[in-house]
Amino acid sequence: MKEAITSLLLIALAQVAFGQVLAPNLQDESLWYLQNREVSKNYGNGVILNAAEGDGMMVLQDYTFNSGTIEFEVKGEDRQGASFVGLAFNIQDDTEYETFYFRPFNFQNEDRKTHSVQYTYNPDFPWEVLRTKFPGKYENLLDPAPDPNGWFHVRITIDKGQIKAFVNHQTKPSLEVQSLSKNEDGKIGIWVGNGSKGEFRNLKITSH
Q: Does the pTM exceed 0.85?
């Protein structure tokens, strides 16, 4: 019965003009699996992933995403080198996936603000490789810069390998890249980096 209810929750999609909208409950443990993190519930519909060594994520089960829009709100910390928060997508397994993530401690740092938002494709193209081989192509600043200790809204669009990230309802993308992965679809998860905790709420997925 529990499996049937879970399936119904995942299939209960609201039809909209250009696709299907899914707003999975972040606090419903039956919809998610954890990798290298523990989760606690936040106020409202939010969750907190704890800090731990290595990257970690909470992945939506029984759902595959190809193209469309992913929106959520996220909160990190103004802790130098210890706050990496964002989205994992095109997840094939625990090691192969793409990310769009943020470094809140760089948001208002004049010397490092161009390293505020980052794209990666793991394991082949982590941030170190991309920064060395393609400086400035796969990371960027946020303008205007959000509060590094506050909530901010993220909208990521994915269409035929073209990926754009919009922050706090800006009309111009903060970062636009072409996917480095050859995979056309995969799972979606909220993601935190090495030594980082993150707070997430109001996830919405619109598939095309």
A: yes
